[in-house]
Write a structure and sequence with these properties.
Radius of gyration: 20 Å
Oligomer: single chain
Helix content: over 70%
Order of helices and strands: HHHHHHHHHHHHHHHHHH
C-alpha cells in the first residue's frame, strides 16, 4: 500500500513540503520558547508565543477553507511556503545582528500561524484529491508519521544549535529548508479547483457549509472532540521546555532530547496505524486517543525524573498520532466532495480554539506551578470529554 501510494505523482513532493513545514515549526517552537524564557523567565510568555502561532486557525480557518476550493491550490501552497520562508529570513537577519526581541518572535508566530492554518484546507486537501477518499487514511498516516519524525528532528536540531551557536543558526537552517520546500512546491502539477467547490459567492459558500455541518451529527461529534483536545490537551506541550528547564535542570540540548520523545512515540504510532488501522475503527481510535492523551499528561506532570518523563511523552505521542491521523481522515471521508474544502476549513477553526487553552494554561502556570497547571487542565479536559459524550457517541459507530 505504501509503495503504491508513494508512486503517485506529486504525493512525495507534498509530503516533503509538509515535512519541511513541520521541522521548521518544531525547530522554531523550541528555539522561541528557550529564547523567550531566558529573556523573561515567564512561563506565561512562553505559552503565549505558541498560542499566537495557533490563533489564526480560529480567526481565519473558515475563510481559508471557503476560499481554497475556488483557486489553484498549487498557487496557494507556493504563497504559503514563500511567506513562511520570508518570515524566518527576517528573524535570522535580526538574530545575526543582535537585534532580536521577544516581540519579534510574537509577530512572527502570528504570521507563521496564518500559514499553518492553510495546511488542512490546502496541502492536505491536495493529498486527498491525489490519492482519493479510500486511501486518504493511509496517506495521512504517512503524513502524520513524517510530522512526528519532524518532532524528533526539529527539537534535537534546535537544542544542539542553540547550545553551540545561538538562535540565529537555527533560524538560518529554517531559511535553507524553506527554500527547498518552495522549489518542491513549484514543481507540482497544476490542478483546477474542484468542480463542486468553485461556484457561488464566498458568503454563500460559507453559509452552505455551516448549514450542512449543522445537519450532520457525526461531523458535529468529530468537531466536538477536536475542540476538547485543542483546549485541554494540546496546550500542555508548550510547557515541556519550562518543566525540563526548571524541574529536571536540563540544558538546551537535553531539553531538545526530551521534547523529541513525543515525536518518537508519534512515529511509532503512525507506523502501527498505517499497518493495522481499519476504517471501521477510525472513530473509536479518534475518541480513545484523546482520553489516553489526557492520562499521559498526568503521568508527565507527576514523574520524578527526566527518563520517566521521556517515557510518558512517548506514550503521549502515540495517542496524539491516533488523534491527528483520524482527525483529517474522518472529516475528509465524511464530507461530500463539494463540501470538503469548507469542512477542512471548519476543522481548522476548531483546531484554532486552542489559543483559549494556551491562554488558560499560561494563567494557571503563573498562578499555580507548571506541573500543577498540567494536572488541573488534564482533569478538566477529562470532565468535559465525559460531559459532552452525547455529541460524540455517534463517532464510535462503525462506518
Amino acid at each position: 500500500m505504501k509503495q503504491r501510494l508513494l508512486s503517485i505523482p506529486d504525493l512525495p513532493s507534498l509530503l516533503y513540503v509538509g515535512f519541511v513545514s513541520y521541522v521548521v515549526r518544531w525547530l522554531e517552537t523550541l528555539a522561541f520558547a528557550l529564547f523567550a524564557y531566558q529573556a523573561t523567565q515567564s512561563a506565561f510568555v512562553v505559552v503565549m508565543l505558541t498560542m499566537l502561532r495557533l490563533l489564526p486557525m480560529g480567526l481565519f480557518g473558515a475563510f481559508i477553507g471557503s476560499a481554497a476550493g475556488r483557486h489553484d491550490l498549487r498557487h496557494a501552497l507556493a504563497l504559503v511556503v514563500g511567506t513562511s520562508g520570508l518570515v524566518t529570513l527576517v528573524l535570522a537577519v535580526l538574530a545575526s545582528g543582535g537585534w532580536l526581541s521577544v516581540w519579534h518572535l510574537a509577530v512572527a508566530s502570528f504570521i507563521s500561524g496564518i500559514c499553518l492554518a492553510t495546511d488542512n484546507p490546502v496541502r492536505r486537501m491536495m493529498i486527498g484529491n491525489i490519492v482519493g477518499a479510500d486511501r486518504m487514511g493511509a496517506a495521512i498516516s504517512i503524513d502524520v508519521g513524517i510530522s512526528n519524525a519532524s518532532r524528533v528532528i526539529g527539537p534535537l536540531l534546535a537544542g544542539a544549535l542553540l547550545a553551540q551557536h545561538g538562535i540565529a543558526s537555527a533560524l538560518w537552517l529554517g531559511v535553507a529548508a524553506c527554500a527547498t520546500s518552495l522549489a518542491a512546491t513549484l514543481r507540482l502539477a497544476r490542478r483546477p479547483p474542484d468542480a463542486g467547490a468553485a461556484g457561488g459567492s464566498f458568503v454563500e459558500n460559507m453559509r452552505e457549509g455551516l448549514a450542512w455541518l449543522r445537519g450532520d451529527s457525526r461531523m458535529v461529534g468529530l468537531l466536538v472532540i477536536t475542540i476538547v483536545f485543542n483546549i485541554f490537551g494540546w496546550p500542555f506541550t508548550s510547557l515541556i521546555p519550562v518543566v525540563a528547564t526548571d524541574y529536571f535542570q536540563l540544558e538546551p540540548r537535553g531539553v531538545g532530547l526530551l521534547a523529541s520523545c513525543e515525536g518518537i512515540g508519534g512515529l511509532v504510532g503512525s507506523l502501527l496505524l498505517a499497518v493495522m488501522a481499519r476504517p471501521g475503527w477510525y472513530g473509536r481510535i479518534y475518541a480513545g486517543a484523546v482520553g489516553i492523551y489526557l492520562v499521559t499528561m498526568v503521568g508527565f506532570a507527576l514523574v520524578p525524573s527526566a527518563l520517566a518523563a521521556g517515557l510518558m511523552l512517548m506514550l503521549n505521542g502515540i495517542s496524539a498520532v491516533g488523534f491527528a491521523v483520524m482527525q483529517a481522515t474522518l472529516v475528509y471521508r465524511g464530507a461530500p466532495v463539494e463540501m470538503r474544502a469548507r469542512a477542512m476549513g471548519v476543522l481548522s477553526v476548531c483546531i484554532g480554539t486552542s489559543p483559549l487553552g494556551f491562554l488558560y494554561l499560561g494563567l494557571l502556570a503563573d498562578i499555580l506551578t507548571p506541573r500543577d497547571a498540567m494536572l488541573a487542565i488534564s482533569a478538566q479536559g477529562a470532565l468535559v470529554l465525559f460531559l459532552s459524550r452525547r455529541y460524540w457517541r455517534v463517532v464510535l459507530q462503525r462506518d
